[in-house]
């Protein structure tokens, strides 16, 4: 898979810098926008990945996210929880997260009696869920399987050209991919607008500056607000946004 087809983050995610409003309705809208942008950022959302899903007889499978080794050495964007940063060693410890997304034609053609592979409630191990009922809401773009999350089933939300999992808060259903220690590129950049809904982005570059900024607020870099970009296995940029 070519790097430029994996790196589809900026157009969707940078739009988050204009987030506005602080009411409950606005907060839900902001969270929705954030989650949709992260769907665009995933390697699974690239045109090449969508054209090459895994296959299994009678089971709709998520679009392949790439192996652990590919993520460690390739060029990706992903949700991450940064747990440690070492300026001297120029490296970061992080837990990488993904979520299930599916080709539109697979979900549009899904019927009761078939099965879909999911990571239920963010479980690390995937399971095959038999579809007992399926409802499609054309207005919202949500597909509810087995009554949706309100009845213990699954909701899928159409985002860009794929369907992806959704929670009550409009986030994807994240599951842990693995814990990595990744080197920082010497030209690493950080864009941080997490201080408030109307906050301007604070831009930082270079390993020392980024390490200092991340380390000063280490508990607040989570999969819900942080997107890490890598180039050839090195952390090249970090984006943190405000979330309600």
From TrEMBL:
Signal peptide interval: 1-27
Source domain of life: Bacteria
Keywords, sorted A to Z: Signal
Protein name: Uncharacterized protein
